[in-house]
Amino acid sequence: MLLSLCIAFPALTAILVLLLPRAQETLVRWVALTGSLVTFVATLAVLALFRTGEAGFQLVENVPWIPSLGVQWHLGVDGISLFLVLLTSLLTVLCIVGSWSSIRERIKEYHFFFLILETGLIGVFLALDLFVFYVMWEVVLVPMFFLIGVWGGPRRVYATVKFFLFTMAGSVLMLIGILYVYFHTTDPATGRYTFDLIVATQQSQFPMAIQTWLFLAFALAFAIKVPLFPFHTWLPDAHTEAPTAGSVILAGVLLKMGTYGFLRFCLPMFPDATMAFVPLISVLAIIGILYGALMAMVQKDVKRLVAYSSVAHLGFVMLGTFALNLEGLSGSLLQQINHGISTGALFFLVGVIYDRRHTRLTSDYGGIAKVMPVYATLFMIVALSSVGLPGLNGFVGEFLILLGTFAANASYAVFGTAGIILAAVYLLWMYQRVFFGEITHEENRKLKDVTLREGLTIGVLVALAIWIGVYPDPFLARMQPSLDLVLSRFHETGLSQVVIP
Fold first, then answer.
1. Nearest alpha-carbon partner for 353 in 342, 343, 368, 363
2. Cis ω for the linkage preceding 230 (within 30 of 0)
């Protein structure tokens, strides 16, 4: 029952937090942190028990939930979901630590919603029943709505309503697709309709016309969550208005629900339609890469710049996914983890100076490397990892994505490479304006460098960025068997695979 415990721990902790007295703010924080740490330890146990080299689902739990409807509490983990679950639990711990001093109002409610958010996110990545997956998908929406709407910036209501409407629009269409699949999937043991994902994937021999409509129903929900151009417009507003920890979990994990959905559902269940949509999705991904980078270059708000960088980076992830070869898929999945680490760290770093100056405008800074040398060093490492400097995590993911994309379509790879150059432009230009030169604002002369708590929070992510950049094999070795299994669905279509020796 280890996977169930990974979902249950944060949910039970959230209920406990809700029962604590409102005045006991310090106790609320410690209880929430303890619950998130226990969940993180449970996910580490999942990693320890995971058998490298196996392609199927492991640690599977399958218990009838609503037998009359064919709904089962069916959970499992494979190489695709393993590190996304670990990333979720780690970032939740870091977000609670990072919110220790910045969140001062409605402490109890804030931690309640954050723990419920963790419950839903882990549930999304572990669910092997379409009904359970959809429930968890919707559970995630509610706490994120409140985290932005209550603890966000001046335009938080606009941002959170926009986020809610975009996500709900896609979710309704996905529900229609799930119901169609349900009524065309029967349990071999009982002969009844079932929501079982494994059975549905095995029986999903739909005609091309049906596959096309089902692909569109699922893909729209996932594209909005990624977000894929042109469904990205909710993201910069949500990131800008969300509290620091909300931006970290939104960029680090929530966006990966969309990219994970493509890998878990669209590719294996609708392979013919996937191949038909490769050109469209690839072009939209390239537009997102270039558009996100160009928009980031002109931002005056550092947090908004990082938000647009997510549009560009997730465009890379989609480009690798739809290369439909092992290099592309491996790079795509690894880059999802890399983006969570690097962009999560960038949002933490932006939050540090915002807590001190209550402004994120680049024009309000300049020369602060002189008074915050440790902060400037951490920011430089994280920025370079986001750019894709060799030796840091971003390079490995981007290299594999470009390798796979070049094998699939060289012209796509050329445009993708342009996105990497633009990423260096907007991040290093921002770094120059914020950290170098003379101190032009007297308020900046009194800025304090990172505290021990802030340094540890960001340092964990920096250490991971260096680890993956230097030695990515432990990650790739666990991912690739499951990705090979996804690619096996395309054998019957005649698509040739490019396999890493």
1. 368
2. yes
H or E element, residue 71: strand 71-77
Give the predicted TM-score (pTM) of the model.
Answer: 0.89
User: Residue 11 and residue 423: Cα distance in Å, rounded?
Assistant: 38
| CA 279, chain centre distance (Å) | 24
Asked if 278 contacts 324 with a C-beta cutoff of 8 angstroms, the reply is: yes
For 356-389, the pLDDT digits (tens) are: 888 888 888 888 888 889 999 999 999 999 988 8
Question: Are the CB atoms for 269 and 214 separated by under 8 Å?
Answer: yes
For 76, the 3-state DSSP assignment is strand
Alpha-carbon gap, residue 161 to 74, rounded angstroms: 32
Cα–Cα distance between 100 and 29 in angstroms, integer?
Answer: 7
Alpha helices by DSSP H, 183-207: 197-203
At residue 398, does pLDDT exceed 70?
yes
Q: How many CB atoms lie within 10 A of CB 63?
A: 10
Contact status, residue 129 vs residue 197, Cβ threshold 8 Å: yes
Neighbours of 58 (CB within 10 A): 17
- Mean pLDDT: which of 18-32, 239-253, 425-439, 464-478 is highest? 464-478
Collapsed DSSP state (helix, strand, coil) of residue 438: coil
Within 8 A by CB and 6+ apart from 345, the residues are: 378, 382, 385, 458, 461, 462, 465
pLDDT of res. 497: 40
Q: Contact, 6 vs 76, CB < 8 A?
A: no
Round to whole Å and give the CA distance between 134 and 354: 36
Its sign, for the CA torsion 342, 347, 350, 355, is negative
Task: Classify residue 135 as exposed, middle or buried by CB count within 10 Å of its CB (0-12, 13-18, 19+).
Answer: middle
Residue type, 103: I
* Alpha carbon distances (Å) from 430 to 241, 299, 304, 364, 458: 20, 9, 12, 12, 19
CA angle 303, 353, 17 (to 5 degrees): 85
Length of the chain: 501
CB 93, CB 33: distance < 8 Å: yes
Structure tokens at 352: 């540090």
pLDDT, tens only, 76-117: 999 999 999 999 999 999 999 988 888 888 888 899 999 999
Contact 232, 311 (CB under 8 A): yes
In tens, the pLDDT along 285-313 reads 999 999 999 998 888 888 889 989 989 99
